[in-house]
Write a structure and sequence with these properties.
Blueprint: H1 2-13, H2 18-26, H3 38-53, H4 67-72
Helix pairs in contact: 1-2
């Protein structure tokens, strides 16, 4: 996972955008965490998915505690189920 993380960070460094900087600074293993509102969450989800698509990577398994935001995420990109664990936080 470390090499994958470093590859992603290297690619993100080539993008001059707030979203790329935000992902780079908040990426934990394979988890992107936290936004302040639904609009930020939607922009983060769509933009980060586009950026990683350039690397032929599919950023999926999205989850949120906000039902409105979850409905805006394509069903195929949503995490399955409601029980989500994050490595090293349990």
């Amino acid at each position: 996972m470390y090499m994958n993380n470093q590859t992603i960070k290297h690619h993100l460094a080539t993008h001059e955008s707030e979203i790329a900087d935000w992902i780079m600074n908040t990426l934990y293993v394979d988890v992107i965490t936290g936004t302040n509102d639904i609009t930020e969450g939607e922009v983060l989800q769509k933009t980060s998915k586009e950026i990683l698509k350039e690397m032929s990577m599919n950023l999926a398994q999205w989850n949120t505690n906000d039902n409105e935001l979850m409905q805006k995420i394509n069903e195929s990109d949503r995490a399955k189920g409601t029980n989500v664990t994050i490595l090293g936080t349990n």
